[in-house]
Amino acid sequence: MRLTSRLAIPAASAVLILALSACGSGDDSHSTMSGAGTTSSSTAEGATTSATGDVEFAQMMIPHHEQAVEMADLALASDTASPEVKALAGQIKAAQDPEIQTMKGWLAQWGASESAGQMDHGGMMSDEDMSSLMGISGPEFNQMWLTMMIEHHEGAVEMAQDVLATTSNPEVEKLATAVVQGQEKEITTMKGMLG
């Protein structure tokens, strides 16, 4: 009886220690999953770094998406763009217009400007590129539009993958994942269309 009592106390202590450490490790894993560190100071620093990355992602992706929508509109308005290009342009516009509004909403909520300053927007077309695209038609338009949109999409995928490596915001993660999956699929389609 005494032996049982003596064993029961250490056993109960061990259970209590395990329970407490499980709670602690749960907190640590949560903070690690959120992109932050395990101490309060590193958590704050990690969250700040992550939030800065989220803001920069939205600031860069908004004009990037806007240019893709502009390119999609050119294809949709073209009398000579192929039906396949027009269908893809409609798909791109339908996907990216709502994402633009979502990201603008984030920046407003975060109290951040929509201006991205001098940041590098991967895959953006120059004014000359856009003018050239506007000045051509037929098969030449289709080829140039597809070539430019592939490059454009590759830039967006890279930006989305970059923020996925740093973000702790589930909404940012969801949108960036959708960008990667959707645009990689469209890149494959466009490469096939170019033959």
From TrEMBL:
Residues 31-48 have a biased composition (Low complexity). It comes from the Bacteria. InterPro entries: DUF305_CopM-like (IPR005183), Ferritin-like (IPR012347). Residues 28-48 are annotated as: Disordered. Residues 54-194 form the DUF305 domain. The keyword Signal applies. Keywords: Signal. Transmembrane segments: none annotated. Residues 1-22 form the signal peptide. The keyword Signal applies. This is DUF305 domain-containing protein.
